[in-house]
Design goal:
Blueprint: H1 30-46, H2 53-65, H3 71-82, H4 90-99, H5 104-110, H6 124-136
Helix pairs in contact: 1-2, 3-6
């Protein structure tokens, strides 16, 4: 195998299966796969067909990994990436939607291609905004602040212990 043919995540060469130039191929987010499998299940139910064991296992796995309530939630996040000044690959978008990193450092640990280079500048502030937006539209929303009880400790107990 020639050096040029080796897979290299840092240069975003992951092999032909992940080639941006393959028409009609888009890496999917887990929620999108879950929606597709749910439609397949509906069709099977209408035809009185039993799902295959692998399908059932995949559905159970995706339920455990569910980060978004609907494909619409994922589409809103995808739109943020599409409208960004930085051009993100389809693989990066799907990966970030599935992994939902909290910050730039975590995102770049998963995807070294997000490190800005002269050939491909990445707007850090824009990417952080998208990551925050994605998390806020997922099940990983930050917890809402609890109303204070007035004593400043937030646990409802009085300072005297009474």
């Amino acid at each position: 195998m020639a050096m040029d043919d080796e897979y290299d995540a840092r240069s975003n060469y992951l092999g032909d299966d992940f080639n941006e130039g393959v028409p009609g191929v888009t890496p999917l987010c887990n929620t999108e796969v879950e929606v597709i499998l749910s439609r397949v299940r509906e069709e099977q139910t209408l035809r009185a067909q039993k799902p295959k064991k692998a399908q059932t296992a995949s559905e159970q796995y995706l339920t455990k990994l569910r980060l978004f309530d609907s494909a619409g939630d994922v589409q809103r996040v995808r739109n943020m990436f599409t409208n960004a000044s930085t051009v993100f690959t389809k693989f990066e978008v799907a990966s970030l939607c599935n992994l939902l990193p909290e910050d730039l450092d975590e995102a770049r640990t998963y995807l070294p291609t997000l490190i800005s280079t002269p050939e491909r500048p990445v707007d850090d502030q824009e990417l952080q905004t998208i990551l925050t937006f994605a998390r806020h539209n997922s099940h990983l929303r930050p917890p809402q602040p609890q109303p204070s009880d007035g004593d400043g400790d937030g646990n409802g107990a009085s300072a005297s212990g009474a």
